[in-house]
Amino acid sequence: MKLIDWHLKEQENMPWLTGTAYWPFKDFSTPVRPENPVPYVNQKGVIERDFTKKESFYVFQSYWAIAPMVHIYGHSQAVRWGGENERKEVLVYSNCKEVELFVNGISQGKKLRDSREFPAAGLRWEVLLNAGKNEIKAIAVAKDKTVLEDEITVRYQTEKWGEEKRLLVSSEGMDETFVLVKVSLVDEKGIPCLDSKKVIRFELAGDGELVKNQGTVSGSSKVQAANGTASIRVKRGSGKSVVAVKSENLETQFITIN
């Protein structure tokens, strides 16, 4: 993401440059990348294969879009980690002139966008997060004085973790048709291993159906963990289904979907 940011910053400050384009707009399949986090998928696109916008989409938008926008980096990163009283970087991508950041309702100050600065054209704050839940909000003002807001909730983890020892599996209903099965890698004390890159495999027996072979993060039966987690959608059937969740050297876990 920061590599893209750097290139866009450099391009915006090249007066002789007449135009540019980013070739992989959408993730695409490839036979030569079986080891990728989503196997056989080149993930350099700014959207997933199901048109889900990735964080890099908003980086491009902040440089190239005409309509005013603001986006806090990290919507897909629900948990962040570090030590107590350790300042953490918060980036905001916007094409508005001025942005103000709030953490748990307290202003962290206003910053002016300057495309000569990096990262995020200078819209960067070093903030203190509370252990546990944190509310982060960005407020931008467009040229026509329209006020735009973006807000995320993140959990800040200060507990240190060891080697992955268990898979914690849960599910939540998305609607009448689909259920989301989620897995988290934890150590022997149950502390989430947020930097885990272990590969997760999902299998199903019963009347339901895994939403797989989609080439997306939540639509693959084999996927590398991100932020220590992985997930897959399950299409409900007329009866019961059992989903098995596997990872090398860890005990297989099962969850029943009705």
Shape: globular
Task: Supply the CATH class of the largest domain.
Answer: Mainly Beta
Structure annotation, total helices: 2
Query: Percent helix among the residues?
Result: under 10%
Q: Give me the side-by-side strand order of the main sheet.
A: 4-10-9-6-7
CATH architecture of the largest domain: Sandwich
Number of strands: 18
Which spans have pLDDT < 50 for at least 5 consecutive residues? none
Radius of gyration: 20 Å
Provide the structure class. mainly beta
Number of domains: 2
Distance between the termini: 39 Å
Q: Report the sheet with the most strands, covering strand number, pairing sense and barrel closure.
A: 5 strands, mixed
Instruction: List SSEs in N-to-C order.
Output: HEEHEEEEEEEEEEEEEEEE
CATH topology term of the largest domain: Immunoglobulin-like
Full CATH superfamily name of the largest domain? Immunoglobulins
Mean pLDDT: 95
Task: Give short descriptive properties of this protein.
single chain, 258 residues, mainly beta, Immunoglobulin-like, 2 domains, five-stranded mixed β-sheet, four-stranded antiparallel β-sheet, 2 helices, 18 strands, globular
